[in-house]
């Protein structure tokens, strides 16, 4: 996990989630790329707009993009004061999920700030980005500026999504002094012809020098998200890792809606992998 991408809500100042991303890059000795995405002015204009109005909107967008490009030096200097040693800045125009998916081709992790006042910062939008960018996503509450990794909780139900999340989070788990596996029980396997190897999550993590404490969760699908948050709070977790699952753009989540609940209510950073 050496290449960290973080979405900037503003090109003029950086705090909250971006500060967390810079601190995480410093702790992992990785690179940080901040990206500011300007929506395309053509997508924002109704078809009946006058040519003069369209020209004004396009010129305003170009002015924003020029200023965003000019912010590169200030962003790099700011990130280095936090400890990030290798820093880049990107500016793009377009639809945010498509831009992030493109940048994700050469990044390992996407850091997003949960901030309903910022573009793409509300839980439904964050869930869409987690599904469509094809990157592990670390969703950070606005008041978290330091990437504390001492205590980490893992949401586990045996699904492919939760397994992918654990696999992707190993570089973070190796920094923790306590890792708790919040075991919600195995999901019923799909009927298949043939045989697949059994996966032992404890043995797998031990191979990566990660020892866990297993905590059994007794809950139903309706309360799974609440139960995960309560169990993470009980151990003082500073990060919750879990799989995200969606079949449609409206998104049906693993644990019967657990991800939706956690995205809305988590007070700690959330690591998601679809």
From TrEMBL:
<feature type="domain" description="UspA">
    <location>
        <begin position="213"/>
        <end position="270"/>
    </location>
</feature>
<protein>
    <submittedName>
        <fullName>Universal stress protein</fullName>
    </submittedName>
</protein>
<dbReference type="InterPro" id="IPR006016">
    <property type="entry name" value="UspA"/>
</dbReference>
<dbReference type="Pfam" id="PF00582">
    <property type="entry name" value="Usp"/>
</dbReference>
